[in-house]
Amino acid sequence: MEKYDVVIIGAGPAGLTAAIYASRANLEVLIIEAAVNGGKLSKTYEIENYPGIESISGLELAEQLTKHGQKFGAKLISGEVKKIEDKKVVLSDGREFEAGALIIATGTKERTLDLPRADEFTGRGISYCAVCDGFFYRNKEIAIIGGGNSALEEALYLASLAAKVTIIIRRDVFRADASVIDRVKANEKIEIITKHVPNALVIEDDRISGLQIRNVDTDETMVVPCKGIFPYIGADPCTDFVDPAILDDKGYIIANNDMSTAIEGIYAAGDCIRKDLRQVVTACNDGAIAANSIIKYLKEKA
Ligand code: NAP
């Protein structure tokens, strides 16, 4: 079994920042990523609140972070963690790695649309990645569900391609940052429908032609004509393999200020921990702190 000083689960901004800090301290570091290096960043059209970089595509920042994360010797592999036994990490393909300390930085996974036939039409009408699939809907009508930062930021991007974007929110207030709301409201291609939730897919000739939505107060329904539906209805932590003893009731990892958890030697960082502000910059912050805490922890144990 391969042994490392630190095994980091997740190669998003938190995990990659932890890798930079830990490997610069000469620790042997392994990063394990189950999906895409860079995490959700790679699906984000534009980042404009990462200090020092006024604007950068999510994919470009993801690529730079992935390169930077490995610059000082950390090893990055692809694999899905099935379980953690003490400080041994077991992957679903059977590989096992022993660690002096672990950082769980697995982020969150987007919630999917809970409508009949939604699974069948995911990838052909329903998409969770505007930057990947937006091009297919140029000059067409698009519906976006949700009123958070993801929904509104991606709506602005999609409005640059589509004929029209309709944002459907279930309350009459957004969750997104004020500046993004202002830009959305000022965009002539974007219509906002409040107090409605998705009710059914409208399908013609085996293709999505609209989204039926329901008024939450009156139960009346109406159809929003659209060829593409982009749900951005929040996300849940990727913590299925984590000991429930360190999870809160929503599945987020409870981490202390130094990113340690109640299990000795297990640290957590980024969007998968219980916290108020989920941003690239706060994920990087967590990753740096987790690595620094582990540097001290391993020194004390030595
Ligand atoms: P979010 O902030 O949780 O917003 C989810 C939205 O979906 C809310 O408008 C919510 O409505 C709605 N919603 C939830 N379940 C629904 C359902 N079943 N049917 C209809 N609507 C539903 O999620 P997010 O936008 O993905 O953001 C996740 C986190 O990442 C946040 O902390 C966010 O700030 C952060 N983020 C930051 C940036 C940035 O800073 N640039 C960019 C993207 C994301 P209610 O409001 O009624 O609950």
- Structure summary, number of beta strands: 18
Strand content: 25-35%
The CATH architecture name of the largest domain reads: 3-Layer(bba) Sandwich
Which ions and ligands are bound to the chains?
NADP nicotinamide-adenine-dinucleotide phosphate
Shape designation: elongated
Can you tell me the residue ranges where pLDDT is under 50 for at least 5 consecutive residues?
Answer: none
Question: What's the pLDDT, averaged over the residues?
Answer: 97
How is the biggest beta sheet arranged? 7 strands, mixed
Order of helices and strands: EHEEEHEEEEEHHEHEHEEEEEEEH
CATH superfamily of the largest domain: FAD/NAD(P)-binding domain
What's the CATH class label of the largest domain?
Alpha Beta
Number of helices: 7
Q: How many structural domains can be distinguished in the coordinates?
A: 2
**Helical/strand content category:** alpha/beta
| Amino-to-carboxy terminus distance | 21 Å
